[in-house]
Amino acid sequence: MSTKSLRLDLAPSSSRRRRLRTCCTELLEIRTPLASDLMIESSLLEAEPAVADYLLVDVYPGSDPSDIFSFISLGYAELNGVAYFAGIDDSNFYSLWQTDGTTAGTEQVVGFPAFADIRSLQTFGNLLYFEGSLNGSSYELYATDGTAQGTVQLTSFQNFFDLVSFDPVAVGNTVYFTSGDGFSSTEIWKTDGTAQGTMLVKDLTTVETSPLIAELTPSGNLLYFQLYDQQLSSVQLWRTDGTDEGTFRIGTGLADPSYLTDFGGALYFSASDAMHGEELWMTDGTEMGTTLAFELVPGVNGADYNGLRNIDGTLYFSNTTGDIWKSDGTLGGTVAITAENFGIGATEPLLVFQGDIYFSLYNGDLFELWKATDVNSSPELVTGLSPLLFTFQDLPYAVYGDALFFTGYDVDHGLELWKTDGTAEGTVRITDLTPMEGDSFPFGLTFLGDNLLFIAKDTTSGFEPRVLNIDAAPIAMIQLPKTTNSGLSIELSALGSYDFKDAVADLTFEWDLDGDGQYDDAAGFNPTVLLADQTFISSWDVSVKVTDLDANSSFATMTFSADEVNLTLDDAALTVSDGDLAVNGGKYFDAFGRTIVFTPSLGDVIDNGDGTWTWNYVPDADDIGTTAVTIDFDNGVQVSQLSFDLTVLYADPVIETDPQSPEFALKGELATKFGTYTVGSADILSITATLGDITDNGDGTWSWSYQTSINEDDYQSVDITITDVNGNSMTLYESLFTVYPVQVHLTINDAAATTNATGVVTTLPDDLGAINEWDPFTVNVWIERNPTTSSLLQTIDYTLGYNDAWFQLDSSASGAGFSQMTVNDVGGQIEVSASNFADLNGGNGDFLLIGSFRFIPNPNGGVPNTTQGAYADPVDLGFSIIDLKQTTLLYTDIPGVQSSSPTTQVEVIPYDIDDDGAIGLVDLTYLIGKIGDPVATTPASYPFDFDRDGFVSLIDLVYLIRNIGATQGNGVPIQFPTISSSLEAEPLAIQSTSSSLLEGEALPLSLPVSEEHNIDAAFGNLNLFQECWESPSDDEEEVDIEAEFALPDFPWQPDFDSEWAIEASSIVECVIDKAISLLEDLEEEHPQLGRAADWLKHHFGNF
Question: Cα-flanking dihedrals φ and ψ of residue 470, to 5°?
């Protein structure tokens, strides 16, 4: 893990950067003039600068030029006007060297200890600090005043194989640094430059598990740093004043604090919280003083800051679109400089020079240096940056007055030292230390007076200290002229001329066109002269004198032909593959502006109309080998010719994975990938894979598959190789990631579930046992977390299916686990998207709440109360998860599987017979029509037998009457019947012969033993049993009414008045009286039911 920044960003850099749009700007031309660029018959440029190696001293003579950084370590540090650096001697030990910028003043510090390695040489106060290793494996921190006697070892950690720098920084007179292996834990230390004053600031392992520390950032009188808790996988913001008690965490509610930057004595940084996406925050070092600086993108999406830097008192950063912004720390003072939509993470601000902001851009292939002038200006390309060594975070540069020196890159010369004055003509490459052999890797750019010190390699000495004196005379250059004004005039050019210190605009250009040695024929960088004023012979000498502000002058002379076409060629040799476009080009100049006819021996030549020409050709299999390409340039007077070698190779086969190919597979399922391939003229020999089966589909596409097991490894490499008949091949290095599907759970609860602060529980809450159709309830949706599929959560999208005929959604809540949830109820399905999760840790077997949904009964529906032939049993609620997709920083659209369903069941409201959501007169009327019915012989009567005793009785009537007035929404509690042991198979019915209860409907009567609990439940404190039933005495014989008078096939009529019949009649009369009394109470409580109550009392009175 880098100690420069701890940031939860696991995705590969190139995956977050988009290729640069080609339509955005007019590019700043890269100027790299060389003598070899000109093919003038008479001579080369006379003032072409000699190739210089700028060598200061050869510290290790004979060192291997191919070794990188083997003999010079990490640049220079200045102390008291002297620059120090670490160099290796011929005994292979590092020691301290010092220089005043001259070869004579460069020497090894006498008596300095010999080290196996030295790194991170920095100046704080009046001391140099460096990290040294005596044994080559463990490093300690040292301080020195530049002498052997003044060198002190400050630590004795003996951390073997310590690969992480101490990253020392200073706050006042105190130097803070970190120590540890960079993997298990690091701690923060401080020193005053003495061994006695070097001590641990705070033992952070007592408060966090295996902490890692990074981004040590001074601000005011405090030091701020990131602390990464490896157990929780979280980045925290801490501060210290150098004391144990003054070292603590701040911004406890913030996630991923990054880009710690001092600005105006306060610390600014990017972070997110539950309410905001990644935005800019500020702190004074206290919890109360940690506040949102401003919100650039309101809501939870955030601005996605990158490269926050304080440059000359202004904050610069890039945002979600990759555009460059600047800010004074307030929203009103924050403006966009560019509007190009470069792509997230593609850019980062670097420095301000001449009022322009210079920034890096990754275009998908390499890094480039760009600049932008002002708000909404069009950015300009300056040059390339090496993708091999330096990233945009580590651009080596140094500024001296109007000159910016930096390490730049172009494809012809590799990584070299460049200089710009901020203009196109003033942007030039200075060195070419490794001609035709790649990069010289200049770094450690440091000014010591008028000397620019740097370290670079050449083909002879390898990496050595080098120096460039900026007081040297300017470099004079002449370019091929152009014919203008329809051939009546000529435009001269001193493009490529520069001074090490002064801007091109401050240089004086004087021209000698007649060869008299006097520079009085023209003036300026691009003068135009009339042909009529010139005297031509077969050749013409043009000279320029370039003078800087210190009156230093240099000269250059070009000789060109007046009769022939003067030509330059970009490349003397080209190598391409068959089927690829071969391109070459150059410049041409005819002194009299004559029409030129281009005739190539192969391919096509285009006159670009600006003094340049372009040749192109697409070779095929017949061109395999090397061919000399010649081009004739005929101006009507003479024919000029140039040639170059074109070498055509068989094209290597190319195999690629389709971007739509699956990035992972579910364990136990078939893993697949697919893609395309291209070949040149050679046929394919084979396409193979190191795992699984691969098929050549014969149409330029391939398909791969592999049957995974349920215990498949999370990651395996898959190498797919295509080989042609010539033995040329390409290997595609693929990765097979396998994951388990996301386990989804539903629980039915009274309310939204209670979780911890990050929305997690270790055990799912128990479901409600049973509810009725009018009860509100909450559906809680959970995922079971595991380290692979739940780590670095980004979004979870799913659909919650429900029965919209029974229920309707009342409200929803995200809970503590995340702050952004969109809900779209489309009727029967609720589409949900959850994001901005509080805990990015993967978890392991715990449960994350991803939504709570409150349901109420559907006022226009409900569970149907129409069961016939059986009593209505409770039913499942019918909730399900449909099509859950989970996306993390690593995986997109991991599918979910519902692994458990709620056990809660719902039962109907028995008294709401018409299913209208209210218990009223209509329900009462329906019931009255069924009184006396045995359910065994009248299946349609089941819904009316509330107490399930086998008959629709007055007791059922009383239950309904007691619940009249209750509705779905008024909250009146429902009084449910006590369920009897079913008597539906016993068809006893007592009927009246002369007058029926309600138009001939039967009145059932059961034995008191089986009805006692129902009567009590229905009539409550009316004490019907005690008041209306007289139990038989011990000496009286109890008659089994059901056994004696079970006459199921015809209405029963008594043949005699037995004592039990008289007693039963009295009980019935008592019951009717009580029922009438209940109706009177009901009428008093509900006057609107008066007519209905009178009607019922009338019919009861006739019984």
Answer: -80, -5
